[in-house]
Each structure stands twice: as C-alpha cells, then as structure tokens.
C-alpha cells in the first residue's frame, strides 16, 4: 500500500480511489510513511484530512447497531445452550466454544462486506458441517484425536473468518494483511472491554453484598456469560467503525512487549540449560514448550502489525529480528525433540499434529526473519514481512482442517 501511495502522490484521483477501496489500510500506510513525504503538498493535505479529530466516537447507522445487538444476542444465546437444552457443559464447551463467536463474526463480515449469496451459502455450509461433525465424534474423553479436533477446530474457523473478512477471495493478499491487523486491534479492544466489564462486575457484586443480597450465581450464569460472548462482537464493531481508537495503542504495546519478550526468552533458554530440563524425554515439558512457541509467534505477529502501523524504528526492527531468531532456536529444539520421540516411541496423533504445526511455524519464521533482516536496511520492507505472515494463513487453515477432520478417522478415533 505504501508503494502505491508514493507512486500516486501526484494523482489525486487515484489516491482517492485507493482510499475508498480500503480506508483503514490506506490510513495506516500513509501514517507510517508521512515523515518521509511531509514536504509534498498533496501529502500535507491528506495528512490534515486523515488526522482531523472527531469530537465523538462514531456509532454508525441504526441498522448497524441493530445488527451488532442481534449478533451479540445470538452469541450469548449460543453460550447458554447447555442451560436451555440440558446438554452437559463438559460435553458442550470443549466441542462448541468456537461456534459461540466465529460464526457470528463470519455472518457480521458477510453482511458488512456484502458478499455474494453463493459465498455466504458456502461459508454457512462449512460451519454447519463442522458443527455436526465435531458433535458426532465418539464421546471418548481419553481420545487424543478428539482433543486434537477440539483444539484445531477454532483455528480452522478462524481462517474461514479471514476468508470472509477478505471479501471471499482466496488470493486477496491485502485482505489477509488487513485481517491480521484486525486481529491485533481486536485483542486490544476486547481486552479493554473485558477489563471494564470486570470492574463493573466487582462494583455490582460489592454493592449488592453491602445490602446482604448474594447475586453471584445469578450474575455469572445470566449476565456475565452474555457479556463474555458479546465482547468480541462489540469489539469488532468498534474497531471497524472507529479505527482511530486503537491506532495509537497497538504500536505502543508492540514496542513495549517486544523487548520484554525478547529478554525473557533469552533468560528462559539460559535457565533451561542451567536446570537441565530435557524436552526430549519429558512429555509435559515439551507440550508447554510448544504452547510457549505458539504464544511467541502470536506476539511476533502482533508486534509486526503494530510496527507496520507506525513504520517502526530501526531499533524496534532489530528487536523483532532478534525475537524471531530466538524463536527459531526454540522451534528447532522443539522440532528435534518431537523427531526424537517419534524415532524412539513411534508415531501418535499428538506427535504428528505437533510436528506438522512446528514445521509450518519454522518455515514461516524463516521467511519472516529473512524479511526482517532486509527491513533493517530498508524499513519499507516491513510490508513484505507482513506478506510473509499473511501468505501462510491458508496453510495454517489447511493443517487445522486436516487435524480436525482427518486425524480422528485416520487413527480410528483413538
């Protein structure tokens, strides 16, 4: 996007078209490159236009508010299904937690993006088929493939949401980039909503306790659960309607947490060596190791999205590069441990699922690190780093699909 803006600075019609095609992406790209083009008269005009401060938050049209309230109500209704149907919570939530939010958000973006009916029907069919499949898997709590299916299904539905967000186009690279940024913004906004909701909950319960009314059970069963289900929907609406709300927050969080995570991982690696913990023979340690790897990958994604918004400094890019290199080392340790365990004790669903995930993450990390090294010399290469992230979204979704739908059958539901 930055390259296209720079190319068309002298063409106001083309600039306007770029802006109208994707206002959020245009705003972020322009803000990042403005320090280098601020002498240009056209750039100055666009800077004033994009940074005109609104006095209040935009709440959209009445129709949008009705859609958001309806989507929030449906999300809460889905979360309360065990109470309405008598289904055991321990059966319902592991299998269906992903269906509380992702289908609702998918429907919201289908409406917002005005997707063709064919695309909407296809997405609806995939969601319905997934719900039927996961709920008809044998109820064996000792089944590794059932657990893997429940873990990977949310990732599959997440990629389906990304497909809808990108306008229903499989090769929409810009749409994938915007989807990654949306996820970072949504994390910030939803966290703020939940913090505010937690404060309201504490005040409410405290006030009623003062008059000797114990409403904790009623409150959490009939109010809090609706709020939790609705938070991502409301957060999505606020982010889409008011991108300026988190435009300044995400880069700050990225700049603060990137060095902290980098230092923490280095200390952690030293501590692993010092304590002599062995991921090769300790299954639980290897599991935690891989969860750590996924968490760090998510932080890298969030940091790169935040850096791209503000065309981050050279130091921040170096920190991201170092974080990626350390994560590659962690991934290499985890991958070698998995291969060792497979060679010693044979293949199992868990080992194969983790092996595939680690190979995907390692390949993605190598591409990201290569691009980050180039970005140290040319900061506008940060867009290519984002593209390296975005290009792997379909692959992550494909692997999640394989683990969710084929592993149980391949391993006879064991």
Description:
- This protein is mainly alpha-helical and 414 residues long.
- It folds into three domains: 1-53, no CATH class; 62-241, no CATH class; 248-410, no CATH class.
- 82% of the residues lie in helices and 0% in strands.
- It contains 20 helices and no strands.
- It has helices at 2-7, 12-21, 23-37, 41-50, 62-79, 81-85, 89-96, 98-112, 117-136, 144-165, 173-210, 216-241, 244-247, 249-275, 283-310, 314-345, 349-377, 382-391, 393-405, 407-410.
- The chain is globular, with a radius of gyration of 23 Å.
Question: What is the topological layout?
Answer:
Elements: H1 2-7, H2 12-21, H3 23-37, H4 41-50, H5 62-79, H6 81-85, H7 89-96, H8 98-112, H9 117-136, H10 144-165, H11 173-210, H12 216-241, H13 244-247, H14 249-275, H15 283-310, H16 314-345, H17 349-377, H18 382-391, H19 393-405, H20 407-410
């Amino acid at each position: 996007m930055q390259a296209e803006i720079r190319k068309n600075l002298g063409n106001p019609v083309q600039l306007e078209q770029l802006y109208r095609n994707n206002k959020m992406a245009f705003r972020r790209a322009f803000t990042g490159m403005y320090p280098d083009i601020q002498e240009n008269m056209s750039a100055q005009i666009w800077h004033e236009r994009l940074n005109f401060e609104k006095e209040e938050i935009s709440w959209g049209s009445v129709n949008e508010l009705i859609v958001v309230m309806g989507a929030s109500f449906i999300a809460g209704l889905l979360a309360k299904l065990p109470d309405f149907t008598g289904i055991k919570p321990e059966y319902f939530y592991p299998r269906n937690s992903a269906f509380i939010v992702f289908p609702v958000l998918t429907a919201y973006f289908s409406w917002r993006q005005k997707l063709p009916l064919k695309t909407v029907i296809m997405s609806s069919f995939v969601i319905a088929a997934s719900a039927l499949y996961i709920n008809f898997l044998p109820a064996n709590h000792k089944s590794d493939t059932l657990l893997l299916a429940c873990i990977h299904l949310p990732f599959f539905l997440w990629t389906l949401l990304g497909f809808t967000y990108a306008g229903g186009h499989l090769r929409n690279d810009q749409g994938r980039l915007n989807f990654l940024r949306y996820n970072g913004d949504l994390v910030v906004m939803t966290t703020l909503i939940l913090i505010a909701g937690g404060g309201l909950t504490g005040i409410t319960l405290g006030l009623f306790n003062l008059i000797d009314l114990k409403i904790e059970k009623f409150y959490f069963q009939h109010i809090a659960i609706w709020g939790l289900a609705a938070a991502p929907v409301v957060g999505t609406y606020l982010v889409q309607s008011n991108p300026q709300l988190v435009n300044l927050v995400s880069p700050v969080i990225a700049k603060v947490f990137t060095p902290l995570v980098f230092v923490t991982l280095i200390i952690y690696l030293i501590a692993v060596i010092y304590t002599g913990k062995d991921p090769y023979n300790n299954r639980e340690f290897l599991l935690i190791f891989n969860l750590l790897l996924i968490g760090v990958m998510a932080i890298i994604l969030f940091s790169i999205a935040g850096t791209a918004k503000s065309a981050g400094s050279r130091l921040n890019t170096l920190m991201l590069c170092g974080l990626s290199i350390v994560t590659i080392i962690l991934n290499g340790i985890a991958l070698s441990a998995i291969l060792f365990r497979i060679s010693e004790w044979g293949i199992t669903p868990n080992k194969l699922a983790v092996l595939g995930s680690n190979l995907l993450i390692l390949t993605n990390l190598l591409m990201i690190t290569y691009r980050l090294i180039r970005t140290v010399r040319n900061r506008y290469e940060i867009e290519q780093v984002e593209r390296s992230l975005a290009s792997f979204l379909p692959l992550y979704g494909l692997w999640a699909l394989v683990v969710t739908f084929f592993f149980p059958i391949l391993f006879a539901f064991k």
